[in-house]
């Protein structure tokens, strides 16, 4: 008798659970509107990282960086927190996104790097704590609608004051999509080991769910 791998029997349950958590959440437009009703300008906006595979950023990183630059240039935030460690590639994600944002016109002093996070929940948690340590009062998350929905439940439970400024694709299409060159070579980590070789799938999944965060840490 052919046996079904446990991975294939459990994964659909996980996907169903994630889908059900996301199904009844506010739309990107509603979250965006609510955020700007709460505050016309934020002290800082958190931008979760994406692996950088040299020599060019991928569409997801481009989308998130372009949108965060748009929010900054529109005056919706004073600072950008680029979040992400070197996880799947030998480049610190937050640093690479900063290079692109600076190339797109954001002053270097207005970009803060959070370089500890390995998972999306850690992006939002560590960046929020960093913002509060810098005495920033009003903080929002800026990422694509899918990741926003994934993190909304976590934020609602752990970070009740967090607001959300997700990408609005109709607006994004009106933003010039430039592809600046950056000097990424200086930021490559030597002797790098990807997370897939140091953590199992299930351990990484728990990290995605925020299970590796020490919420009592100051």
What's the short story on this structure?
The chain is of the alpha/beta class and 218 residues long. Helices cover 44% and strands 11% of the residues.
CATH topology: Rossmann fold
Biggest sheet: strand arrangement: 3-2-1-4-5
What is the total tally of β strands?
5
The arrangement of helices and strands along the chain is HHEHEHEHEHEHH
Low-confidence stretches: 1-21
Helix content: 40-55%
C-alpha geometry: globular
Describe what this molecule looks like in 3D.
With 218 residues, the protein is of the alpha/beta class. The chain has one domain (25-208): Rossmann fold. It has 8 helices and 5 strands, in the order H-H-E-H-E-H-E-H-E-H-E-H-H. It has helices spanning 6-23, 28-38, 59-73, 93-103, 120-133, 145-158, 169-172, 201-208; strands spanning 42-48, 77-83, 111-114, 139-141, 163-164. It has a 5-stranded parallel β-sheet with strand order 3-2-1-4-5, with helices on both faces. Strand 4, helix 6 (145-158) and strand 5 form a beta-alpha-beta unit. Helix 3 packs across helix 4 (93-103) and helix 5 (120-133) crosses helix 6 (145-158). The chain is globular, with a radius of gyration of 18 Å.
Strands, helices and their partners?
Elements: H1 6-23, H2 28-38, E1 42-48, H3 59-73, E2 77-83, H4 93-103, E3 111-114, H5 120-133, E4 139-141, H6 145-158, E5 163-164, H7 169-172, H8 201-208
Parallel strand pairs: 1-2, 1-4, 2-3, 4-5
Helix pairs in contact: 3-4, 5-6
